[in-house]
Amino acid sequence: MEVIKKIMNNKNLVIFILGAILMLLFLKQCNKISSLKQDINYAKEEANINLNNLKASRDTITIIKNDYGDKVAEIRSFTIDLSKKDEDIMRLTNKYKRALNLSNDLKNVNTLISAQLKLKDSLLANTTVTQIDSNSAEISFSNSDDYGGGNSRSLLGTSLIKYEYNKFEVLSSEFKLTQTLSLITAIENIDGVDKLKITTSYPGMEIKGIENINLINSRLNSKPEKKSGWSIGLGVGYGINLNNNQVISFGPSIGVGCFYSPKWLRF
Fold first, then answer.
1. Is residue 157 part of a domain?
2. Structural domain count of the chain
3. Strands of 126-131's sheet, edge to edge?
4. DSSP bridge partners of 79
5. By residue range, what is the domain housing residue 26?
6. Sign for the pseudo-dihedral over CA of 145, 148, 152, 154
7. CB-CB contact of 96 with 214 (8 Å)
8. Residue 234: exposed, middle, or buried by beta-carbon count in 10 A (0-12, 13-18, 19+)?
9. Measured in Å, how far apart are the chain's first and last C-alpha atoms?
10. How do residues 69-89 score in pLDDT, each as one tens digit?
11. Closest Cα partner for 114 from 73, 70, 152?
12. What is the pLDDT of residue 121?
């Protein structure tokens, strides 16, 4: 009780203690506000991803034409946060993991892209007939087209026919069809929305389905969260001091004490 009375009678000491308490309460409140802001940012980011994926799931392929007359297919991209684990993410990514032999955690993978193509094709082949003997002949077929941009088609074939017993009979046929198909794709951000675009110069090619999934990890890419707390150690600084004469002054100080640091003051 005597010690408490001495403290209470010392106005400078009381002011100093009250100031320290108010400062600690202020720092604690600032720390709570900082944590709340971080939680709000996470919530906003997750809400934006969910809204984008909802719109992407309802989006259909849009077909436009480029300056060369080729069809360009585009669709809204999905975004998956790998820090979230749920069944929808597993369903969307499993086919890529199996087909491309990717790791289960999709480490070092930024984007997943797939396309479903349907080809309707027809050709007129050049034909030549080579007489083998009086009853048989070989018919040769050939065709070669270059559509540019790495798209081409070539056909080589032969059929061996024979006339016997007043009718023609095909003895054997062999055809070799070679096609090269070039797809050009890009992910373009249009008005804040990522869209996958795919085109090809190959005629008769129909793009039935395309999908793009952007992979992110919000927790991994976010800044490391600093922790607030108490600590004991050697302190050197400049601030409010209470000297031996119970006089409050401003100046440099050094000493051993108990310290509290909020998140925003830690580095």
1. yes
2. 2
3. 126-131, 136-148, 151-164, 167-180
4. 214
5. 2-41+226-265
6. positive
7. no
8. exposed
9. 42
10. 889 999 999 998 888 777 777
11. 73
12. 85
Non-local CB neighbours of 249 within 8 Å, separated by 6+ positions: 240, 241, 243
pLDDT in tens, 156-197: 999 999 988 888 899 999 999 999 999 999 999 998 899 999
The structure's pTM equals 0.64
CB of 236 closer than 8 Å to CB of 259: no
CA gap 210, 196 in Å, rounded = 8
Q: Is residue 47 part of a domain?
A: no
